[in-house]
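User: Structure please.
Assistant: Input sequence and predicted structure:
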Amino acid sequence: AADGLDAAARVADLHPHVVLMDVRMPRCDGVEATRTIRARTHPPTVVMLTAFDTDDFLLRALDAGASGFLLKHTPPAELVAAVQQAADGTMSFSPSVLQRLVTHATRAPQPTASDPLDGLSAREAEIARLVADGLTNAEIAGRLFLSLPTIKTHLARIFDKLGVTSRVQLALAVHGHNGASGRHR
């Protein structure tokens, strides 16, 4: 696609499972295109690809619903692997981007409110923590002896209850609270 508007239109026509999205594009940047795409019913996973790994781009992309963030100098084999991982429900980040995200999350003011997982059932909270630990849906299903559709149903409820739109946002919510309280698992 030539720009973000074209990317959103192509997603509507082609119904891909994964979109590899550039951040900087004419007319409509990749962040806004991602927001539009992720607002669709049954949206594809979006992995951002950019030459710029600034905190602003990273946070805006994650807020828009991106599930990964790769730098353009990522070797081709790693790009292919990241797209395949995204299709499997795993978050993908270039190492330097992941380090920036962790650094930002640990410096961010920690919420003083109650645990964001308090509104979840015990099973939903368990699944949310496993997502935050980086497990795929299939790995969670295997660990909890549940079917993959059951995991997906729980995740849809978790996303709705917590007001998040991606696994990354869910992980940030879980880790943000755990960092504040010192609890994990």
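The longest strand covers residues 45-50.
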